[in-house]
Amino acid sequence: MGQDSTTTQTAPPAEVGLENTELEPAEATSENGKLQSPQNSETGNEESSEEHSDADEPSWMQKIDATFGKYVVANAANVIFYDFGTKDRFGVSIPFVVVWLLCGGIFLTIRMGFINLRAFRHAIDLTRGVYDTPNEPGEVTHFQALAAALSATVGLGNIAGVAIAIGTGGPGATVWIILVGFLGMTAKFTECTLGQLYRVTDEDGHVLGGPMRYLRYGLKDIGLPGLGRVLAVVFALLCIGASFGGGNAFQVGQSLEAIRGDVDILQSHPWIYGVVMAVAVGVVIIGGIRSIAAVAGKVVPFMCVAYVIAALYILGTNASEVPAAAAKIVSEAFSLKAGWGAFLGILVIGIKRAVFSNEAGVGSAAIAHSAAKTDEPVSEGIVALLEPFIDTVVVCTITALVVVVTGVYEAPEMQEVIANNEGARLTLEAFVVGGHDWFRYVLFAAVVMFAYSTCISWSYYGERSWVQLFGVRSSIIYKCLFLCFTVLGSIITRGNILDFSDLMILGMSFPNLLGVFLLSGVVKRQLDSYWKKYQNGEFPRMK
């Protein structure tokens, strides 16, 4: 975590790569068993001294962060990152959630006949509107649904998350990020198809779909109503928490760290950035999915293109170094020089960061895709499989190559940045070193806009989950809470934000994937029927 300044050169990946599974408590334990704050844990009973300067008193922001870490992050981590004693057996902690996600992606890819590969061209045609027909049910087009979902995934996970993975686990983590991206394409297809199959329209005319629907009513259809109700409620609660954390506070915190060094007022008053973001987010989320999709449809493509062009320029000017960087990424992914513990450590880091980036298996994207205009649920699932490819296979790989080619992850002056999980700052350094000094402003814009678009999309995910639990009239309460966490994102430290984000987002995969596994037969039958129609040319082309 942020308190550990160990560099990746002096500690093996198995030790430094799992800072999010071996959480440091917000408070340290003294010799007499009582809890002390980190500021006082090294000074024994100095806290009880009557002479205590104001400089030693933690600020109100530090108090909020310490409380958040102690009572929320640490306790939740004990459940979600439980590793069944693998650290003692293998020398590295392997959280069950990591195994769950990897096995889930493999199972669904085989179960759906590698639809992630054979439907790739068809997915592009669907997104282009080749098969769109007027008056189809839904609120947004295929492209707008894809843009809304991508706006929640293409963002700080690609810019900051990949840099964190390489900084802590080495370049080899990139291979596992890419692999999970390919497997995630099928997971996205399956959950988004289910989102379409079980969607409904609420009393205000808005589509309500996603795991909280197909878990409850899909499992009811196959004779498991009790399990369905439990999983739907658990998912909705975790989704609300994830929207506050990974989809909101983490985005604000990481984007703030990237720009605050160039904005003097944010050095002493970081909360100002949180307030500005809260106002900007609030203006959009009041309008619901149509407003969110309209903004995302403009912001995401523009910022993706700008970011990728800048990254490709860096790779082009360092073209002679790219083959060596790619070879290093592959060789270190499978290297056993540091033992099985180090290998497994890199694998775990790659899987975690990939899932945090593309959210495959988590179920969040199914909420956005359920609002797409179509009368063929499978078609939207096929559109959805493009997300992990764009987000993880393309954008994450480009980011990883830039970080490795420039070598900033090995620079001594960057080790504190890595230890503090400031991934956006590491990528910023790579852009400046590999390109031009003014490239920092391209990354500033990308970081802020990606963070902004992620916030508005995740607000929709959380709001739909909230409505499922508490009714449509309570939606305004959720939106107010969401904006409060936007401000808190500029206050809570990086380590606690990242940990909380992992906890909630990865936690969503438990109820979601269990339901998806049980309903995979339903999706397979729908897919076989759809694919037969497609191969027979029964879908008229509009373009």
Describe the structure.
With 543 residues, the chain is mostly helical. Helix content is 69%, strand content 1%. It is built from 25 helices and four strands. The strands form two sheets. It has a two-stranded antiparallel ribbon. A two-stranded antiparallel sheet has the order 3-4. β3 and β4 (207-208) form a beta hairpin. α9 (173-197) runs antiparallel to α18 (377-384). Mean pLDDT is 76; it is low at 1-53. Residues 44-57 have a biased composition (Acidic residues). It holds the Pfam family Na_Ala_symp. Residues 1-11, 29-40 have a biased composition (Polar residues). Keywords: Cell membrane, Membrane, Symport, Transmembrane, Transmembrane helix, Transport.
Short structural description:
Pfam families: Na_Ala_symp. This is Alanine/glycine:cation symporter family protein. This protein is mainly α and 543 residues long.
